[in-house]
Amino acid sequence: MKKNVVIIGAGNVATHLSIAIRNADYNIIQVYSRQIDNAVLLASLLGVEATDNLEEIDRSADIYLIAVSDSAIEKVVAQLPGLKGVVAHTSGSMDMDLLEKFDNYGVFYPFQTFTKEKQLRVSEVPLLLEAATEKAEKILLELARDISNKVQLSNARMRKALHISAVFACNFVNHMYALAGELLEKEGLSFTLLEPLIRETTQKALTMSVRDAQTGPARRKDRVVMNRHIETLNDKSFHREIYTLVSESIMKMYSE
Amino acid sequence: MKKNVVIIGAGNVATHLSIAIRNADYNIIQVYSRQIDNAVLLASLLGVEATDNLEEIDRSADIYLIAVSDSAIEKVVAQLPGLKGVVAHTSGSMDMDLLEKFDNYGVFYPFQTFTKEKQLRVSEVPLLLEAATEKAEKILLELARDISNKVQLSNARMRKALHISAVFACNFVNHMYALAGELLEKEGLSFTLLEPLIRETTQKALTMSVRDAQTGPARRKDRVVMNRHIETLNDKSFHREIYTLVSESIMKMYSE
């Protein structure tokens, strides 16, 4: 028997997860979004019904996935009726107990960065699960294993550590690229010059210990070069402050 | 007529460049390193003579590449005899005029991160050149184009901007990975959980604008999540300070 799933949310996470769930032969029966245009867009992609009214949520589903922004979860939960199915949110940083008004609930956290326009293989995305009841654990584990090869049970503390580590390894990494790009742009140089360096840095991080992979003036504690760089950087932007602080952090890591 | 090349230095940059130069059918005739063991190691890889004495440098070569640490260049130059060939250093951050005692000199800056143990395709590495004379420019351009498809003339200012941008896009990126790994380790979680995220973050940076690729709490200006993360982070390490500063920088970039 195929399970019925309702998707609450129509953003990046909701889009990628719902496509993977549909492809794993689940019946997605409804998509909700606060903004009806977004709900309709995802719902039509999946060939299902759209709604922007939480009172209209189908009450017969087996699984409800709440993939909305962290700050919206509480409001969504307050507006949802009592539900028999398993209800899970997809947030790395929110507590499972936000959902305690339901009989069976849990967390279904995909550890990845999602962009709507960009396809990715959900099968390679680590899914971190937490469940309040045996029934919720059984059903969420089954769903998770049907769409990913990397399923792991985790508590709130582990999930939080993962989420913060993702901020460093993804959001902050991307910002370092953006800051690097700004420096090149000022000299009329193309961002594409960075591409081989970005590729190589990533390759190293994936194949050797990041501790051993570290290079650069801070790693060598070369204060002459660091000071010359810091002097060059415009103190009206954050480049200078970030250069100084991150270099201190690297030097500390290698003096321990 | 094959050109004769002397390699001064036996570190990461010297190793990768000299192999690429040898493979492009130049005659490498000598390797110098302050530490004879290092000189012998690289020289035997290339099948040539090793020395740790700058007075013994072969004076008949066409090209001398000084690939030593920034702080050692001046000392090496002072100890070198007058040379007829073209002398170039490989540093992104040092002035060309460090070499002004020679007749023909320049800079031969490979814009990449090098690790001895890890092979890489030098043909994909951008080479940034600067030359003091026409002869130096001609010979360095020829050498550069023989080993790389990405050769560009640049002045000291551009080279410096590139070097600092590499600190952000490579050294600091790697450190973000290391900091992320520390957070996971504390919770007994494996660094490998980060791999799909690292891959995807890189993929995005290489295929879309990094400005558009930015995600996360700072991008959304979600202070509730950011504050919760900051509270969690141990203030004895640099995690908390870096989290705060880089988040501020992201928020500023998207408020402009």
Q: How would you describe the overall organization of this protein?
A:
- 2 copies of one chain form a homodimer.
- With 256 residues, chain A is an alpha/beta fold.
- Chain A folds into 2 domains: 4-154, Rossmann fold; 159-253, ProC-like, C-terminal domain (N-(1-d-carboxylethyl)-l-norvaline Dehydrogenase, domain 2), CATH 1.10.1040.
- Helices cover 46% and strands 14% of the residues of chain A.
- Chain A has 9 helices and 8 strands.
- Chain A has helices spanning 12-23, 36-46, 73-79, 134-147, 156-186, 195-207, 210-213, 223-232, 239-253, and strands at 4-8, 27-32, 49-51, 63-66, 86-89, 104-110, 127-131, 151-153.
- In chain A, strands 3-2-1-4-5-6-7-8 form an 8-stranded mixed sheet, covered by helices on one side.
- Chain A is elongated and about 65 Å long.
- Chain A starts with a strand and ends with a helix.
- The mean pLDDT of chain A is 94.
- At the A-B interface, helix 5, helix 6, helix 7, helix 8 and helix 9 of A face helix 5, helix 6, helix 7, helix 8 and helix 9 of B.
Distance between the termini of chain A: 57 Å
**Integer average pLDDT of chain A:** 94
- Please tell me what the overall shape of chain A is: elongated
Instruction: Give a quick account of the main beta sheet of chain A: strands, pairing sense, barrel closure.
Output: 8 strands, mixed
Helix content of chain A: 40-55%
Structural class of chain A: alpha/beta
Protein name (chains A, B): F420-dependent NADP oxidoreductase
Domain Pyrroline-5-carboxylate reductase catalytic N-terminal (chains A, B): 5-85
Pfam families (chains A, B): DUF2520, F420_oxidored
InterPro entries (chains A, B): 6-PGluconate_DH-like_C_sf (IPR008927), DUF2520 (IPR018931), NAD(P)-bd_dom_sf (IPR036291), P5C_Rdtase_cat_N (IPR028939), TM1727-like_C_sf (IPR037108)
